[in-house]
């Protein structure tokens, strides 16, 4: 691999989310958000899925987001470590409830704006471009209680006000924006994805797709506002990526895989193309879904994104009978276990070629620049007798996926950059664990919230520093 495989202006870095890293859940005027209600332990999944209405905290549960890794107080130390690795981009998110604690106020919280202004200024001090997600799996709980979250059309107005506030407050500091993180997860994890909880007997598909419509309108409106505030702003959508492979060459399995891909790509089809795809008419009819839209929605949706960002951890498999008790629950997006690839300790398939396949499919479909904003291996890291963390398994995973990115670039795909997930250890969104680690930097904290929070460089820290310095040419 030559240095020219990656463009000279390729952005190298890492990614975190406010709700998994910041902590300080009630400091600086911040309001309570959906993720603050999601416990670690046996009830976590039911709450995430919106099956258990959780509007109050319980004394017998641990809520990992409340302190997380205390990035709120330690961001200067952490940004300095990222700069030491050579980051040119750092993906993070703004906690909506730091800017608007309830979500429906007319004026923002000055302390929240000051915090993010300081954070982004710290990035710029090291010549690191912030890549900022407006809504990364956190909705102010007031909006859930009072309005039903994204099932309510009023959310479009609230989000547009929040987005404009951010674009204006951080103009000159941030030019790369994402509207909603992994927007398709709304269908699979409705409470964590969009603050949705369900009433007994209601058509959940109707609720989810109506909420999706509101998010899509809000995303397009935010894109329009971003370009009005500063024409240099670049706005992307964000997909939980990974193609579905047919379980076999049986035509029914091929069709099932196509349907599962469409289910996930539906959101990006709208955000990147500017209208609902033709296949949704039949999907909605068969799910008994009737989208309520307002005059002007079609025009708003035409404000398409500038680039398509995505996460990639694993490919997936689908068959015509995959819902008959044979699908894997390793990830929130259900999949059959692929016998041709290895899997992580948490059951996520390891498939670097799948990344190249996904990138080719997405560019063929959208013809917009791509940005890989999440990718990594969740693993248990052990500190040896010398106080070191030899995470060769992580290096191996990342090496093969960076090679796949290079192949995709050689295929002719414009890739803007790469931000590996959890560049510093943080709370796992799926399980709430700290022991499921992704980072180049170890954080001393366990699954029960105990530890000093001290930061330690792993072996992968020095490896990734070398990768960045060589612009992806040296992966040894």
For the largest beta-sheet, the strand count, sense and barrel status come to: 8 strands, parallel, barrel
What is the overall number of helices? 15
By CATH, the topology is TIM Barrel
- Helix percent reads 25-40%
Per CATH, the superfamily is Glycosidases
SSE order, as H and E? EHHHEHHEHHEHHEEHHHEEEEHEHEEEH
Uncertain runs are none
Silhouette: globular
**How many domain units?**
1
Strand order of the largest sheet: 1-2-3-4-5-7-11-12
- Return the structural class: alpha/beta
What's the architecture, going by CATH? Alpha-Beta Barrel
Q: How many DSSP-defined strands?
A: 14
Share of β-strand residues: 5-15%
Mean pLDDT metric: 95
Amino- and carboxy-terminal Cα gap: 11 Å
Measured on Cα atoms, how large is the radius of gyration? 21 Å
CATH class, please? Alpha Beta
Organism: Winslowiella iniecta
Pfam families: Glyco_hydro_1 (PF00232)
Family: Belongs to the glycosyl hydrolase 1 family.
GO molecular function: beta-glucosidase activity
Report on the structure:
The chain is of the alpha/beta class and 476 residues long. The chain has one domain: TIM Barrel, CATH 3.20.20. The chain is 37% helix and 13% strand. The chain contains 15 helices and 14 strands. It has helices at 18-21, 44-48, 71-85, 96-99, 110-125, 141-147, 154-169, 190-194, 204-229, 251-273, 280-286, 297-301, 352-366, 392-410, 459-469; strands spanning 11-15, 89-93, 129-135, 176-180, 234-240, 244-246, 307-311, 316-318, 342-343, 349-350, 370-374, 415-421, 441-443, 455-457. The strands form four sheets. The chain has an eight-stranded parallel beta barrel, surrounded by five helices. Strands 6-8 form a two-stranded parallel ribbon. Strands 9-10 form a two-stranded antiparallel sheet. Strand 9 and strand 10 (349-350) form a beta hairpin. The model has no long low-confidence stretch (mean pLDDT 95).
């Amino acid at each position: 691999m030559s240095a020219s495989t990656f463009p000279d202006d390729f952005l190298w870095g890492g990614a975190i989310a406010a709700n998994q890293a910041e902590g300080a859940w009630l400091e600086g005027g911040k309001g309570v958000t959906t993720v603050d209600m999601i416990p670690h332990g046996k009830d976590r999944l039911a709450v995430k899925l919106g099956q258990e209405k959780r509007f109050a905290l319980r004394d017998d549960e641990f809520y990992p987001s409340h302190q997380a890794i205390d990035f709120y107080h330690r961001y200067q130390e952490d940004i300095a470590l990222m700069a030491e690795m050579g980051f040119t981009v750092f993906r993070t998110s703004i906690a909506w409830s730091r800017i608007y604690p309830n979500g429906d106020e007319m004026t923002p919280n000055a302390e929240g704006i000051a915090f993010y202004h300081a954070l982004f200024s710290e990035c710029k001090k090291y010549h690191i471009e912030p890549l900022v997600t407006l809504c990364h799996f956190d909705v102010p709980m007031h909006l859930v209680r009072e309005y039903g979250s994204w099932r309510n059309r009023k959310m479009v107005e609230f989000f547009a006000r929040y987005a404009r506030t951010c674009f204006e407050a951080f103009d000159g500091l941030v030019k790369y924006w994402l509207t909603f993180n992994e927007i398709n997860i709304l269908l699979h994890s409705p409470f964590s994805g969009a603050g949705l909880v369900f009433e007994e007997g209601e058509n959940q598909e109707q609720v989810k797709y109506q909420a999706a419509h509101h998010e899509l309108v809000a995303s397009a409106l935010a894109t329009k506002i971003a370009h009005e505030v500063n024409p240099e702003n670049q706005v992307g959508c964000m997909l939980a990526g990974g193609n579905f492979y047919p379980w076999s060459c049986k035509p029914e399995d091929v069709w099932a895989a196509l349907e599962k891909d469409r289910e996930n790509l539906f959101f990006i089809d709208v955000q990147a193309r500017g209208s609902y795809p033709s296949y949704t008419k039949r999907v909605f009819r068969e799910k008994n879904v009737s989208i309520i839209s307002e005059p002007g929605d079609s025009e708003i949706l035409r404000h398409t994104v500038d680039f398509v960002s995505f996460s990639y951890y694993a490919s997936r498999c689908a068959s015509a009978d995959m819902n008959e008790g044979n699908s894997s629950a390793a990830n929130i997006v259900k999949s059959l276990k692929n016998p041709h690839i290895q899997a992580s300790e948490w059951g996520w398939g390891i498939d670097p070629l799948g990344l190249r396949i996904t990138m080719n499919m997405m560019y063929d479909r959208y013809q917009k620049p791509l940005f890989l904003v999440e990718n990594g291996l969740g693993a248990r890291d052990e500190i040896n007798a010398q106080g070191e963390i030899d995470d060769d398994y992580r290096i191996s995973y990342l090496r093969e996926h960076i090679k796949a990115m290079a192949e995709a670039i050689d295929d002719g795909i414009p890739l803007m950059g790469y931000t590996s997930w959890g560049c510093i250890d943080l709370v796992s969104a799926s399980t709430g664990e700290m022991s499921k680690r992704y980072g180049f930097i170890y954080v001393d904290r366990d699954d029960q919230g105990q530890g000093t929070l001290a930061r330690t460089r792993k072996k992968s820290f020095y490896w990734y520093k070398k990768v960045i310095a060589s612009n992806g040419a040296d992966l040894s």
